[in-house]
Amino acid sequence: MKAHLEYKERVNALRAREKENVERAEEEPANHCGEKNFPPLVPPLKCQGIKTRLAGEISRLARTQRFERWVEPFCGSCVVALNLQPKKALLCDANVRIIRLYRDIQSGKLTPGAVQSFLADEGEKLRADGEACYYRVRERFNSHPSSLDFLFLNRSCFNGVIRFNRFGKFNVPYGHKPGRFARAYVTKIVNQIRRMTEVLSTREWTFATADFRATLAEAKPGDLVYADPPYAGRHVDYFNSWSARDETELAGLLKQLSCAFILSTWHSNEFRKNNLIERNWNELHLQRREHFYHVGSTEDLRHRMIEALITNFPACPPDRTEGGNIGAVGVFREACIAELHSAGRWERPRRGTDPTPC
Ligand SMILES: C[S@@+](CC[C@H](N)C(=O)[O-])C[C@H]1O[C@@H](n2cnc3c(N)ncnc32)[C@H](O)[C@@H]1O
């Protein structure tokens, strides 16, 4: 009975908070990246599954929530954080090379000036030696990893993917563009480094190499988690293997969180739909967005895709919702259970006595 009353209390509190969040989102003028007319900011690193084109949409969703810290267990290129620019963030990825690059920018080890002269010099060698130069840098990187070499490889490899073999060695082939580092392109990359440096100098962001389980264990009330895992069964490599089992484990952990979360995953393409959505996320809120992937090693990875944004809060005021919302009920129940559970006070009421919150 006590648990039942607490449950109801929590439901009412969450409803009140939800109403406040929706009102706030309507009042606040959307800034830079919430606006469709502004192009998104582009990070210095490219990776498969990069959310450049969804960054504005995800930022807008995030701004409907009041949160103290932004937490990303799969930060990849960091494009979403770069566009949202939260004051505090915990940005994690299993790929130590990605995290090292962002840490090097943050610490001032990788400066715009250093990138400018490195890419200009190595770009000249690439122009002269082509393939031989690319493989020389790849070998150097694999024996002594450095962020400058990583950047060079990332921007001159085949289709800008990040892939490591089972021994942890970068194995993406040459992109066959000897003139890749023309002056304009180098300037573009240097500007991306400069922008990231500026953002990092004014924010309290922590970068960490971590498995998603460890990152989610750090999440606390007041955080907003954005999870963008690899697609199950695709992009499989040393730092990036992902199975249906991982996805189900992720779903379990996210649903137990005591804070809000946003998850992006693929919904469907012209050939098939993602059955894991129904299995793992049925009771939460879902929006669909069309997205075109430009980064991928094969044609089937560069394609039109319907992306799903799944949240444990109503995604936006009804008049702004595209696609459909599913399962508006479960969110309150899960959030209540999670909060009581984390406080060690939750006992699931017997069947039939479970109050329906909405
Ligand atoms: C789809 S990408 C994220 C893309 C990112 N949101 C962006 O827009 O650039 C998935 C990321 O998950 C990372 N990853 C793969 N398995 C992981 C795991 N078990 N724990 C943490 N990160 C993992 C990969 O290294 C990759 O950077």
Short description:
This protein has 358 residues and is α/β, with parallel strands linked by helices. The protein has helices at residues 2-27, 55-62, 79-84, 96-107, 112-129, 131-143, 147-156, 183-202, 212-218, 244-255, 275-281, 330-342, and strands spanning 69-72, 88-93, 204-209, 223-227, 260-268, 285-292, 304-311.
- CATH superfamily annotation of the largest domain: Vaccinia Virus protein VP39
Largest sheet: 7 strands, mixed
Class based on secondary structure composition and strand pairing: alpha/beta
- Return the CATH class of the largest domain: Alpha Beta
> Into which percentage range does the β-strand content fall?
5-15%
**Architecture (CATH level 2) name of the largest domain:** 3-Layer(aba) Sandwich
For the biggest β-sheet, the strand order reads: 3-2-1-4-5-7-6
Radius of gyration: 22 Å
Number of domains: 2
Order of helices and strands: HHEHEHHHHHEHEHEHEEH
Attached small molecules: S-adenosylmethionine
CATH fold descriptor of the largest domain? Rossmann fold
Distance between the termini: 19 Å
